[in-house]
C-alpha cells in the first residue's frame, strides 16, 4: 500500500517547472508591465500556451507543496514569497486606498473574490519565453454593486479609469484600467456574473494612444464574459478539455511552449497536463493517434529500439515521436550549402528520436539518437549534412572504424569554449552531439562494450522518459557554479551556496524514475495517463 501511495505522490513530481509557473502566475495576483501597444506583445489571445482550471487559485501553491519533491526543493518560503510578493502587496494596498477614500466596503474582498473562487487562468509566453501574460476569468454573483462603484470611481480616481469598452451579449461593457504600482497596470471587465482580469493593457489595446482594440483579443474577452457556458469555455477545444469543473486543479501546457517552438517536428505530442485530485497529482499527455501512426515502420510511439543504444544512467532522457517529413524544409535550406542534396534524409530516418543529458557532459551538449531504415542508402549524405549544419573554420575530419562505423567531427570555437561536435552512422543508428565524447559512448554501447539504458528497463517500448534526480542535480550544480566564479561573482555565488545548494542536495536523495505511457490512442486526439515509476539504480 505504501509503495502504491509513493507512486501516486511521485506522479507529476518532476513536472514542477510547469506547476510552479502556473502557481506563480495565479498567486502573483495580476500584474506585469506597463501600458504598451498590443503589437509589442505579439500575443494571439485566442490561443494561450497554457490553461489552469482550479477550484481555488489561493490553494494551488499549497497543494503543489503536497508533492514531497516539490516540498523539499521549494520549501515553505516558496509559499511565503508569493503571499508577500511585490505585485500582490501593491495591488492590495491600492484596493485598500480606493476603498477607504471612496468609502467602499469591498477592499481586500476583491482579491478574495478572485483567489478563493473557481477560476480559469489562460497564460501566454512573453518575448523572453516565460509565461508572463495571463487572463483570469471567474464567475461571481455579487458583481452588480462592484460594477456600479467602479464606474463612479473611474471618473475621479487617479489610479483607475475607463480604458475602453467591449460589446457583450448585445450591450456595451466598460473595461477598466487599474494602476496599482510603478509601471503596473491591469485591465478588468465584468458582465452579469462574470469577471475577467488581464495582466497587461497591451493584451487588449494598442496603437500610439493605447486605445485601438485588437479584434481577436476583444472577441476572446467578450466570449469569456458571455453568460453562456459554451462561450465562456472558449479555450477548452484546443486543449481537448470537457466543460466539467475540476474537483481540484488542472494545468494544461502546450508542447509548443515546452519544446521552445520545435513542436512541429513532433506534432503527435500536443500538450502535457497535471491534475490534482483527492490529494495527489497525476500526469497526462495529449496525443494525436493519426500522427502517431506515421512514426516509424511499426507505427505508434514505440521506443524499444532506442534504449539499447543509449548509455546507462542518464541525468535525463526522453524519446519523442518525430515527424521526419517535417524536416524537409530545414534539410532543403541546408542542402543549398552543399554539393549533395540532403532532403532524402527525411525519408531515411524513422521512428522516435531520443535526446539525453549525462552528468559527464554539460547541459548545452545533449546527445541525440535516431534510427534509419535498412534501405537508407548513401552514408555520405550524412557527412554533407554535418558539414552544412556545423559552422567553423577547421576542416571536417572523417574516420571509418573497423566495424564500418562512419564518424565526422569538427573543432568549433564557441562562447562557452572549444567544442568538438560529432556525427556518426553505425548500421541503422544515427547519433549526434556537440560533445563528441557522448557520441563515442553511444557507439561503445552499440558494440556491447558499455552498459545500456535498457539493461534495467522492464518495458522499453512504453518507456518515454528517464530522470535521475541525483545526477541531474549535480549537472545543474556544475552549470550554476561554473557561471558564478567566486572571484568574479562573490555575492551571487554566496546566494547560490545558501539557497540553491540545499535544494539540490534535497533533489539528490530521490531515486531514478521512468515515465511510462500506459496506453496509446487508437483514433483521434486524446489525453493518456503517464506513470512515474521508480527504477533500479
Q: What do these coordinates show?
A:
This protein has 537 residues and is of the alpha+beta class. 31% of the residues lie in helices and 27% in strands. The strands form 3 sheets. The protein has a 20-stranded antiparallel beta sheet, sandwiched between helices. A hairpin with a 5-residue loop joins strand 8 and strand 9 (212-213). Helix 5 (68-83) packs across helix 18 (490-507) and helix 17 (469-482) runs antiparallel to helix 18. The radius of gyration is 26 Å and the shape is globular.
The SS-based structural class is alpha+beta
- Backbone shape: globular
- CA radius of gyration is 26 Å
Give the helix tally: 18
Average pLDDT value?
78
Query: How far do the termini sit from each other?
Result: 22 Å
Would you spell out the secondary-structure blueprint of this structure?
Blueprint: H1 2-10, H2 16-28, H3 38-41, E1 50-54, H4 60-64, H5 68-83, H6 86-101, H7 109-115, E2 119-125, E3 131-139, H8 144-153, E4 160-168, E5 171-181, E6 184-191, E7 194-198, E8 205-206, E9 212-213, H9 215-225, H10 229-232, E10 249-254, H11 255-258, E11 269-277, E12 280-288, H12 289-292, E13 316-320, H13 328-335, H14 345-348, E14 349-357, E15 367-372, H15 380-389, E16 397-400, E17 406-409, E18 412-414, E19 417-419, E20 422-426, E21 429-433, H16 436-446, E22 463-467, H17 469-482, H18 490-507, E23 513-517, E24 525-534
Antiparallel strand pairs: 1-2, 1-10, 2-3, 3-7, 4-5, 5-6, 6-7, 8-9, 10-11, 11-12, 12-24, 13-14, 13-22, 14-15, 15-21, 16-17, 17-20, 18-19, 20-21, 22-23, 23-24
Amino acid at each position: 500500500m505504501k509503495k502504491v501511495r509513493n507512486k501516486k505522490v511521485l506522479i507529476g513530481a518532476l513536472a514542477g517547472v510547469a506547476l510552479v509557473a502556473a502557481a506563480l502566475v495565479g498567486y502573483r495576483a495580476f500584474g506585469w508591465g506597463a501600458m504598451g501597444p498590443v503589437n509589442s506583445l505579439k500575443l494571439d489571445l485566442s490561443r494561450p500556451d497554457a490553461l489552469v482550471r482550479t477550484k481555488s487559485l489561493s490553494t494551488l501553491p499549497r497543494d503543489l507543496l503536497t508533492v514531497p519533491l516539490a516540498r523539499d526543493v521549494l520549501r515553505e518560503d516558496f509559499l511565503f514569497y508569493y503571499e508577500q510578493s511585490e505585485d500582490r502587496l501593491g495591488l492590495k494596498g491600492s484596493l485598500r486606498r480606493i476603498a477607504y477614500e471612496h468609502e467602499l466596503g469591498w477592499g481586500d474582498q476583491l482579491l478574495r473574490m478572485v483567489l478563493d473562487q473557481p477560476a480559469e487562468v489562460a497564460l501566454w509566453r512573453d518575448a523572453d519565453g516565460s509565461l508572463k501574460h495571463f487572463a483570469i476569468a471567474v464567475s461571481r454573483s455579487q458583481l452588480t454593486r462592484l460594477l456600479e462603484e467602479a464606474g463612479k470611481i473611474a471618473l475621479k480616481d487617479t489610479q483607475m479609469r475607463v480604458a475602453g469598452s467591449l460589446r457583450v451579449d448585445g450591450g456595451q461593457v466598460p473595461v477598466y484600467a487599474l494602476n496599482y504600482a510603478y509601471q503596473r497596470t491591469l485591465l478588468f471587465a465584468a458582465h452579469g456574473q462574470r469577471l475577467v482580469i488581464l495582466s497587461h493593457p497591451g493584451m487588449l489595446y494598442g496603437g500610439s494612444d493605447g486605445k485601438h482594440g485588437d479584434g481577436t483579443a476583444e472577441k476572446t474577452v467578450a466570449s469569456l464574459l458571455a453568460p453562456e457556458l459554451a462561450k465562456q469555455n472558449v479555450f477548452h477545444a484546443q486543449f481537448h478539455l470537457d466543460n466539467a469543473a475540476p474537483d481540484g486543479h488542472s494545468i494544461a501546457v502546450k508542447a509548443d511552449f515546452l519544446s521552445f517552438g520545435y513542436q512541429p517536428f513532433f506534432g503527435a505530442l500536443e500538450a502535457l497536463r497535471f491534475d490534482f485530485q483527492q490529494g495527489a497529482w497525476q500526469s497526462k499527455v495529449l496525443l494525436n493517434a493519426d500522427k502517431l501512426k506515421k512514426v516509424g515502420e511499426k507505427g505508434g510511439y514505440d521506443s524499444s529500439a532506442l534504449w539499447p543504444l543509449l548509455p546507462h544512467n542518464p541525468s535525463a532522457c526522453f524519446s519523442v515521436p518525430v515527424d521526419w517529413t517535417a524536416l524537409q524544409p530545414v534539410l532543403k535550406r541546408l542542402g543549398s550549402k552543399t554539393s549533395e542534396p540532403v532532403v532524402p534524409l527525411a525519408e531515411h530516418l524513422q521512428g522516435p528520436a531520443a535526446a539525453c543529458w549525462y552528468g559527464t557532459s554539460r547541459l548545452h551538449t545533449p546527445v541525440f539518437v535516431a534510427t534509419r531504415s535498412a534501405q537508407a542508402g548513401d552514408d555520405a549524405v550524412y557527412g554533407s549534412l554535418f558539414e552544412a549544419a556545423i559552422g567553423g573554420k577547421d576542416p571536417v575530419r572523417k574516420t571509418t572504424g573497423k566495424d564500418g562505423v562512419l564518424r565526422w567531427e569538427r573543432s568549433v570555437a564557441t562562447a562557452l569554449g572549444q567544442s568538438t561536435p560529432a556525427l556518426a552512422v553505425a548500421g541503422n543508428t544515427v547519433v549526434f552531439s556537440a560533445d563528441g565524447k557522448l557520441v563515442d559512448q553511444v557507439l561503445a554501447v552499440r558494440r556491447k562494450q558499455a552498459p545500456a539504458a535498457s539493461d534495467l528497463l522492464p518495458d522499453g517500448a512504453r518507456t518515454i522518459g528517464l530522470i535521475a534526480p541525483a545526477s541531474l542535480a549535480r549537472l545543474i550544480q556544475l552549470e550554476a557554479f561554473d557561471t558564478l566564479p567566486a572571484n568574479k561573482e562573490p555575492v551571487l555565488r554566496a546566494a547560490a551556496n545558501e539557497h540553491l545548494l540545499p535544494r539540490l542536495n534535497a533533489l539528490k536523495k530521490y531515486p531514478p524514475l521512468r515515465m511510462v505511457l500506459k496506453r496509446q490512442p487508437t483514433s483521434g486526439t486524446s489525453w493518456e495517463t503517464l506513470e512515474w515509476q521508480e527504477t533500479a539504480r
